[in-house]
Write a structure and sequence with these properties.
Number of helices: 14
Radius of gyration: 18 Å
CATH architecture: 3-Layer(aba) Sandwich
Strand order of the largest sheet: 1-6-5-2-4-3
CATH superfamily: P-loop containing nucleotide triphosphate hydrolases
Shape: globular
CATH class: Alpha Beta
Number of domains: 1
Strand content: 5-15%
Distance between the termini: 41 Å
Number of strands: 6
Bound molecules: adenosine monophosphate
Length: 284
């Protein structure tokens, strides 16, 4: 198998576990597919600009969530009680029920093994409510304080997302882009990405200013599925063509409020404009 074949052909890949993992493949999950932007594009309902943007780009999977029978069995009252107890408030349409146990998320084995190794006992509130949404490919703003498990709330679905995409080809940029306001936060996120992405052999790199560019350029040129970056240095790398955002299908703005307070809005807009597909996850 060439490294450019889809991960579907990889015996260890998540798609091979599809039937019993609870994760759905786009065409088998017709209702979510029908309402997706890709389906709208395929039906000619996407705006002309968007259609041009999408021309020539391969389709991608973004809905990996199937509610487990025990989550489906939760009554509205039980859901309300769980949210009240864990201090979860939600806004928006069709918000999925929270997942109260790791086993109910339908994460593939390689993710569950990492969670067990870390010794976690239950999802934190932002994970319980955020995972079903992020795994569904929903746009999401999550607000939770530091130490609440917010990093894994977006990273574990990101890892599942990457493992369902075709392998990177030469010249491809990352599939997951996480923007963070500071080098310190970017490095912390990278540590989590390295720990939890190791079993599926995902590569990541951290792009931030104030250090020589050489090693970061070399990482980008080797090809990395996950890039964690501060906005200024990332723009520098984009402008000097050391990477591109054509393959990004999962975008996270970590501490988005802080980035805006720090005046990063023009840089964020410049970066987001280069993301052809938008699956936006914000967290604070
Ligand atoms: P945060 O800065 O909000 O991402 O929180 C990070 C800390 O929470 C790290 O030490 C993680 O290992 C830890 N963490 C993440 N998820 C859980 C969980 N479900 N149970 C216990 N600790 C967790």
């Amino acid at each position: 198998m060439s490294r450019y074949d889809s991960r579907a052909a990889d015996p260890g890949s998540y798609r091979d576990r599809r039937p019993d993992s609870g994760f759905g493949y786009k065409r088998e999950n017709e209702s979510s597919y029908r309402s997706s932007s890709l389906a709208k594009y395929e039906r000619g309902e996407q705006s002309p600009q968007r259609k041009t943007d999408l021309d020539g780009l391969p389709p991608f999977e973004k809905n990996f969530y199937v509610e487990s029978s025990s989550v489906a069995a939760l009554t509205e009252r039980e859901v309300e009680e769980y949210r009240r107890r864990r201090e979860i408030t939600v806004e928006g349409k069709d918000v999925p029920k929270p997942v109260t146990r790791f086993g109910d998320v339908g994460f593939p084995d390689y993710v569950i093994q990492e969670i067990e190794k870390a010794g976690f006992t239950e999802p934190t509130p932002i994970q319980a409510q955020g995972w079903p949404m992020a795994l569904r490919g929903r746009d999401l703003i999550g607000i939770a304080e530091t130490g609440s498990g917010k990093t894994l709330a977006y990273l574990l679905p990101a890892i599942v997302h990457v493992n369902a995409q075709p392998f990177l080809a030469p010249g491809d940029g990352p599939i997951v882009l996480v923007l963070a306001p500071t080098r310190e936060l970017a490095v912390q996120i990278q540590q989590e990405a390295t720990k939890f992405g190791a079993s599926s052999k995902l590569k990541n790199t951290c792009i931030y200013g104030g250090v020589p560019k050489g090693p970061q350029v070399r990482d980008l040129q080797k090809g990395v599925e996950i890039v964690i970056a501060t906005p200024g240095r990332l723009i520098d790398m984009l402008e000097s063509h050391h990477t591109n955002l054509r393959r990004v299908t999962y975008l996270v703005l970590d501490e988005a409020d802080r980035m805006l307070d720090m005046g990063f809005e023009p840089q964020i807009r410049k970066i987001v404009d280069q993301v052809c597909y938008l699956l936006l996850t914000l967290s604070q």
